Amino acid sequence: MTTPTDTPHILRSNDQEQQRLHNEIQRMGAMAAAQIDAAIDVVHRRDDKAADRVIANDDAIDELELQISNDVMRLALRGPLAGDLRVILAALRIASDIERVGDYAANLAKRSKSLNQVPPMPHTHGLDALARLASQLVRDALRAYDTLDVELAEQVRERDGELDQLHTSLFRELLTYMMEDPRSITPCTHLLFMAKNLERIGDHATNIAENVIFRVKGEDKLPPRDKRDDTSTTSGVG
Amino acid sequence: MTTPTDTPHILRSNDQEQQRLHNEIQRMGAMAAAQIDAAIDVVHRRDDKAADRVIANDDAIDELELQISNDVMRLALRGPLAGDLRVILAALRIASDIERVGDYAANLAKRSKSLNQVPPMPHTHGLDALARLASQLVRDALRAYDTLDVELAEQVRERDGELDQLHTSLFRELLTYMMEDPRSITPCTHLLFMAKNLERIGDHATNIAENVIFRVKGEDKLPPRDKRDDTSTTSGVG
Q1: B1: which of A64, A115, B65, B160 lies 20 to 30 Å off by Cα?
Q2: CB of B210 within 8 A of CB of B222?
Q3: Which of A85, A112, A167, A185 is best to mutate for the B interface (most B CBs within 10 A)?
Q4: Residue/partner pairs of B127-131 with CB below 8 Å, 24 or more apart
Q5: pLDDT of residue A220
Q6: Spatial separation of the C-alpha atoms in residues B4 and B12, rounded to whole Å
Q7: How far is A149 from chain B (nearest CA, A)?
């Protein structure tokens, strides 16, 4: 038996519940985007304690995702649905993508601690442009979701190609550097993985954007985006 | 308006629908596990065409996930639910984890093509033990889901620690090799990412196992598993 006291949310209307969920997802997204900025900041500050805080913050994002996916499903199961299947699936998928953006940001902070054990490297700055663009793409994808702006969502998909290009050139630069100075191999390996994390964040921003398009237009299969990251097939540093 | 002709599944019982979905998820899981084996096989055969087939097969897994998530939601929205929230959330999450296992397997195949452009490297064999264990963990997690076997699911969580240890030692070995022979840096970088892909597959097997436990026991927060992969904080090759 449920009573109004132990489940007060049952008394809210579907519209109110949907609005609340929408706000929660936006809040979760803002937290994840802020984590990217914080992570790249601790890379430059070389501050292990600040890195630990970024890593610890990720738990809050993970918990929010569990909460949101439970709430979305509860709303779906409640009965005659205010929205439809697309609204629910898009919300679940977007929450899951935001959660993974948070994971990648936490991993950046984690690897920054390894970089703090060696002298500063010029290439940490190579990450900045990637981090700025990745963070921007996540924010834009969330804004597109907030206002159901298909045009903005399409732009996010397109601009992820720029991120892939930046990633490819940093990847090649790091390989060259490793060949020139074998002592740099260990820290450069961390930088390679950090660059990859940022490139993956762009993929998740794209997923969010594609779910906005799916939510509005109901198209689940989109034509493949022009993929310009070819680091997984690169064979030299040409 | 729907008619029995255009939506024949509406006529099926909830139990039948649930059974069908269960079978689909198992089929999807078997495909993803087979992709891991196929990917490591093409690494050794150095066969670009076979690699392309593995990469192309991933589309079928992706499509199956879209189909399954739509079907799960349709079942959820149908009305009085045969199962409950946990059944649905577990199914959606497990399908999503299987989809990502497939992505990592495809990425292994993709990177194998870069390795084919350089002479054979002894370290490709270092991947074998990781691939065997990763594939086994995925299959065991799926078997635990099939029979709702919590004990087996707990074992998968534990054994993912072994995979993390194998990954850490291969990671260090590859770094040493790169330092000894700078010409090996580019191919070894691919091997580092391939090893990481296999380690991530283990994380997804663990997620599947945790969702089996959630589905049976309703516990969404599990105590953190003993994490033995410390490559993201490694600062030397000791």
Answers
A1: B65
A2: yes
A3: A185
A4: B127/B40, B127/B43, B127/B170, B127/B191, B127/B194, B127/B195, B127/B198, B128/B40, B129/B166, B130/B163, B130/B166, B130/B167, B130/B170, B130/B195, B130/B198, B130/B199, B131/B36, B131/B37, B131/B39, B131/B40, B131/B198
A5: 60
A6: 10
A7: 23
Both tokens assigned to B81: 């639910």
Task: Decide if A117 and B76 are in contact by the 8 Å CB cutoff.
Answer: no
> Who among B114, B221, B233 is closest to A114 (CB)?
B233
Q: pLDDT tens per residue, chain B (238 residues)?
A: 344 444 444 556 778 888 899 999 999 999 999 999 999 999 999 999 999 999 999 999 999 999 998 888 888 777 655 457 788 889 999 999 999 999 999 999 999 999 999 998 887 888 999 999 999 999 999 999 999 999 999 999 999 999 999 999 999 999 999 999 999 999 999 999 999 999 999 999 999 999 999 999 886 654 454 455 567 765 543 3
Interface touch B73/A66, C-beta < 8 Å: no
CB contact under 8 A, B232 and A89: no
Contact B52, B132 (CB under 8 A): no
A 10 A CB-CB count for B205 gives 32
Query: Which residues in A lie closer than 8 A to residue B107 (C-beta atoms)?
Result: 232
Please state, in angstroms and rounded to a whole number, the distance separating the CA atoms of residues B39 and A235: 19
Burial of B73 per CB tally in 10 Å (0-12, 13-18, 19+): buried
- On whether any CB of chain A is under 8 Å from the CB of B2, the answer is no
Question: What ipTM goes with this model?
Answer: 0.84
Could B77 and A76 be called an inter-chain contact, meaning their C-beta atoms sit closer than 8 Å?
yes
Touching check for A50 and chain B: CB below 8 Å? no
Strand, coil or helix: what is A89? helix
| Whole-structure pTM value | 0.87
pLDDT of residue A5: 42
Pull the structure tokens for residue A82. Answer: 């205010």
Interface probe with A: pick from B232, B234, B237, most Cβ of A within 10 Å: B232
Contact in structure between A64 and A27 (CB atoms under 8 Å) = yes
Question: What chain B residue is nearest to A75 in terms of C-alpha separation?
Answer: B77
